[in-house]
Amino acid sequence: MAPRPSSFQRLARSVAHVRALWGAGFLLPLIPAFYAAGVAAIGDLRPEHVVFALFAAVFGFIGPRSKLFLIDTSPIIAVAMGYDLVRYVRPFAVLPERVLGCELRQADAAVLPTFGGRTLQESMAALHTPALDLIAAVPYTIFIYLVFVYATVLFFKDRPRMRHYLLAFAVGNYISFACWLLLPAAPPWYVHAHGCVIDTAVAANPAGLARVDQLFGISYYASFYGRASAVFGAMPSMHCAYPLIGLLTAWRVAGVRARFVHLGYVAVMSLAAMYLDHHWAVDVVAGWVTALASVVIAGAWLKYRERASQRAREAVSGRLSTPRPARPSSPFDRPAPAPFGK
Question: Lowest-pLDDT range, 146-155, 162-171, 270-279, 319-328?
């Protein structure tokens, strides 16, 4: 019976396995763990930090296929970390005098019809009923989980589209992070509750989704939106950008039925964003523009990378297929003289 390997031998094998997978970049799957350790050091560790750290470490070190899955889904981790970092930058960037308060409401009223002094968004929000609350809550409940599920399905079905979708997802989110910090804007629920005076100490609010919490006697939405990184992040609406990113990256390959599903998701989410008092109409349009820009940028980057990889492959192939030049002749290449007497 073979002796059991020692702890040192098992550790050595594990290190060799990781080195074989990642080479010099063997610490990359541990970046979320390092981030989690950093926020733990300041007493701000939350369950999602641990989840992403474990996800990256496990999928990064199991084997080649799980490594590919981690690489392809890394934009999600980058977005999660970026979103979390916004909360630490926000106190220095989001100052009351820089926040758009009633300006977005005025923009809505200027470009869209008003109804008895109410904007389109305010008229929709005033029509709330329990049935409509539940319908509007559906896209707002599933949107972030749908990103994970959709990406996983595409990993097995259409990896190039998955890369385009998730890269556009990341690009769009980082555009929104920049907007939240450089051009902070108050959402409708804030203006309706506090007026045009900006108080950056106000906590995040689930707005119309609080009615769903009350209907079921739960606090899910209050807890979920209470952890928001940016209270004054109404523009652009990423809730409205996500469905459109899915539609735009799928349009060329999707069938008629799939296109209608995507279009329905875009429409329902956009209407829900206004109905639930989360976004003005101009925020919704800004979300659509962000989605379009992110899909174009991500697509251009992926095409550039593909062309660069193709050129590199052709260069390697050319070097391998080119015959080696003949060695120059020298006096030493002369045939040996015949033996004496022959």
Answer: 319-328
- Rounded Cα distance between 326 and 329, Å, is 9
Instruction: Identify the domain containing residue 135 by its residue range.
Output: 96-202+230-308
Q: What is the CATH number of the domain that holds 166?
A: 1.20.144
Concatenating the DSSP letter of every residue in 56-94 gives: HHHHHHS-HHHHHHHHHHHHHHHHHHHHHHHHHHHHHH-
* Separation between Cα atoms, residue 234 and residue 107, nearest integer Å: 14
Clarify whether residues 292 and 184 are in a common domain. Answer: yes
Taking the CA atoms of 262, 265, 271 and 277 in sequence, report the sign of the dihedral they define. negative
Give the global pTM. 0.86
What gap in Å lies between CA 304 and CA 307, rounded to an integer?
A: 5
Residues 54 and 148 grouped into a single domain? no
Helix (H, G, I), strand (E, B) or coil at 230: coil
Both tokens of residue 109?
């009223």
Structure tokens given for 255: 């069938």
Specify the range with the lowest mean pLDDT, choosing from 154-158, 213-217, 305-309, 316-320. Answer: 316-320
The answer to whether residues 175 and 60 belong to one domain is no
Residue 227 CA to residue 83 CA, distance in Å, equals 11
Residue 137 identity? A
Residue with token string 């804007």? 185
Structural domain includes residue 342: no
Q: Could you tell me if 192 and 258 lie in one domain?
A: yes
Kindly state whether residues 187 and 165 are assigned to the same domain: yes
CA pair distance 231, 89, nearest whole angstrom: 13
Q: Is 180 found in the same domain as 112?
A: yes
Looking at residue 332, its pLDDT comes to: 45
What six digits make up the tokens of 229? Answer: 């990184």
**Could you tell me how far CA 339 lies from the centroid of its own chain?**
81
Torsional class of 129: left (φ above 0), alpha (ψ -120 to 50), beta (otherwise):
beta
Angle at Cα 298 formed by Cα 50 and Cα 257, nearest 5°? 90
If 0-12 CB within 10 Å is exposed, 13-18 middle and 19+ buried, where does residue 1 land? exposed
